[in-house]
Design brief:
With 366 residues, the chain is an alpha+beta fold. The protein has 11 helices and 15 strands. The relative contact order is 0.17.
Length: 366
Amino acid sequence: MLTAVFCMVLSVTVPDTSRFAELRKEYQEILSDLTADEDFPGVVVTVESGDRSFSWAGASGNLTAGSTFFIASTTKIFITALVLKLEQDGKLSLNDPVGKYLPSDIINGLHRMNGAEYSGYITIRHLLSHTSGIPDYFEGIRPDGTSLIEELKQGRDRSWTFEDAVSWSKQQEPEFKPGEEGKALYSDTNFQLLGKIIESREHKPVAEVIDSLILMPLEMRNTRMCSKNSSTPDVGLNLGPKPLNIPLAMNSFGPDGGLISTSGDLMKFLRAFRNGYFFPRENWAGLQVWNDIFFPLEAGTGITRFKLPWIFSLVSPDLQLIGHSGLSGAFAFYCPEKDLFFTGTVNQVDSPGTSFRLMLKLAASY
């Protein structure tokens, strides 16, 4: 009887083990194929199933599984976690107007459209969901026809302050009123403001709040905010086949995109975020009220979703990815259809779609 049971167990577990071994080999080949392109000198990915029955960390090129890298706007989901935790702790409400926590010199003129002032109507929820209508200080076109992102891509590194970001945003005309139905504009200014709101509630710099409420409890020892006093990531950014050296900018992004991390640390965070560490797990669905920001990416409440329409299902699996990415090529996403978590980076500023294609390819093979 025991022999029969043992054989039955083997008949179930051996094929799974063999499949996962082949899957890991296939995943590594996918990464190696990517770094064969000179535009992608390094890539690192961690993949885990929801039940942890499958876990894999792979890298290729000039990155290793433990390499630190600049995660850019993937930082925003950390800020989302803090805001949602502060709401659970009773320190704020997503429906609070931002003027409750920020001084009048910041609020006044933050959203002035067609001569009318709408700044007082902006809530924390609007900031998280990119429905505030506040222009983007980073990619938005300023009155002189320039944008900060183009300056940096041209190699003109520079630093800026929170006050600079707000000032550049105020120089631009909003496209819609706060909370206007069906409207969203991805704006880094929103998360600069959220950083200040967090600081006003916790009475210390947002980098220290990230340390105390996220990094220390989750034992994320290789994650930190960029600053003049911190070490740089193991590898720099890439813009096409050339390096993009912007240390002053990396030190300036702060709450909208200034963290350095590893794929392993990001996995710890992403699982905690999805599984109810910062807010009740049943509230996950409530974050998923989607508005288009740029095809095929949609903004929810502090998270984003990548989902191709059904017409593309013949050439790409009909899957969705929920989480956040960064201009650096970094990513932290959950795929509900496969119950898979993905973290890592392709470390390429000039190809924002590559990280999504990579995750979809890995998910489809699972």
